[in-house]
Design brief:
Layout (H helix, E strand, L loop, with lengths): L11 E4 L9 H20 L10 H7 L4 H11 L18 H19 L5 H12 L3 E5 L5 H8 L7 E3 L1 H7 L8 H10 L6 E5 L2 H9 L4 E5 L5 H6 L4 E3 L11
Parallel strand pairs: 1-2, 1-4, 2-3, 4-5, 5-6
Helix pairs in contact: 1-4, 2-3, 3-4
Length: 247
């Protein structure tokens, strides 16, 4: 496995979606910003402090299930809202209502802009398949399958653990390791024989907490040190940096 940058004994690759496989992390950050800024402006008026699509996104919402992201960011501003229900409409000022509002925005942006995969990650996933490694996508997004299909890469992965599956199985999201552990279990691989590929700090923590064989941080935004501090064993700018002489 040296041509894939993996230690001996690794038998599976568990990939995050947004920011690792597809160029959708910036779309999600823009959707969070649009939703939170509208909410904060209606609440605080002209004196509102906007959502920062880099710092606030990385610290409070990146990699988390939608409702957890809403709670996390609002708590950072000292705001508490009623939980509401998962089927709350987007106009409801509840945790789930704001999450629904954000999801509507991101779906519109994806429809408008399309989905582009990171070609280096696609090459890496294809090399992993050629080497006989098991492969899964692990994402907090409920739109994971639609994004994979839009990017043309769904066939590269045998297992998908996403927001829909996590809700069905009642799995807590990242930074808890449960979704990654479920992916390894579905692939029939022990965690110590699986590698995790993540770009979010919450994903690093999940990889470390799950005692996986390798945790790879993918640094798209210049946060290499933070990725290491949160659990990355190594950090790359793109996954094809790990390929070496692999075809």
């Amino acid at each position: 496995m040296t041509s894939l940058g993996l230690p001996p004994g690794i038998r599976a690759c568990l990939f995050d979606l947004d920011g690792v496989l597809t160029r959708t992390a910036t779309v999600h950050a823009a959707a969070w910003q649009e939703m939170f800024d509208a909410f904060l402006r209606s609440r605080d008026g002209a004196g509102f402090r906007p959502f920062d699509p880099v710092d606030d996104y990385d610290a409070y919402v990146d990699g988390m299930p939608r409702a957890d992201g809403v709670r996390s960011f609002l708590a950072s501003r000292g705001i508490t809202l009623p939980e509401g229900r998962p089927d709350d409409p987007p106009e409801a000022d509840t945790v789930h209502g704001l999450g629904t509002r954000k999801n509507a925005i991101v779906l519109e942006k994806i429809k408008e802009l399309g989905v582009q995969p990171y070609e280096g990650s696609v090459r890496y996933a294809k090399a992993a398949r050629a080497a006989g490694l098991r492969r899964a996508v692990v994402s907090s997004s409920a739109n994971c399958r639609d994004v994979l299909v839009a990017a043309g890469i769904e066939d590269l992965f045998e297992v998908r653990i996403d927001g829909v599956v996590a809700a069905e199985r009642k799995l807590p999201g990242k930074p808890h390791p449960d979704t990654f552990l479920a992916a390894a279990r579905d692939l029939g691989v022990e965690p110590r024989r699986a590698a995790v590929y993540e770009d979010a700090l919450a994903g690093m923590e999940a990889g470390r907490a799950g005692a996986f064989g390798l945790v790879v941080g993918v640094d798209r935004v210049g946060q290499a040190e933070a990725l290491r501090a949160h659990g990355a064993d190594l950090v790359v700018g793109d996954l094809d940096e790990l390929l070496g002489d692999a075809p």
